[in-house]
Amino acid sequence: MNNLKNLLTKPLQLQSLPKWIPITILVLSLAGFADATYLTVKHYQGIIPPCSISGCEVVLSSDYSVILGIPVPLLGVVFYSILILATFIYLDSKNTRVKDVGLTVIMGISTLGLLAALGFIAIMLFVLHAICIYCMVSDTITIFIAIFAFHIFRLNMKAVASSVLTENNGK
User: What is the pTM of this model?
Assistant: First the structure.
């Protein structure tokens, strides 16, 4: 039981996190931010953006394109902004605790984003029977960000487990 407590309460153990992972998350977040911002501007202009496939109008003008009066792309802008900020915090900070906060936010918000992206894809495919290419770009970016965030989590759990085993072997 003590081992489980150690696993759950130890600070993140990612001193050796490869720098390319947060940089990749940052680049993907910037691309997602650009896509979501474009769709948000078009929403408030009342314009459906040009689309190479015929589903954009169906998706972007559906009841599912607004949640509690907030356009879904604006929620995407907030989502990507949080990821960008958390990634900059991680990359820029020298303080281990502050870096941990950045990584924790990345992992948590990525999980929420993944659930939302999968839900939006399901709505497009199974409810609306239409695909918005801009929305799919954002959803795909979010899925890739979540994959990298889960990789960070896996690396952390591996490091924490190793640390716990080392502590137990020393007793």
Answer: 0.87
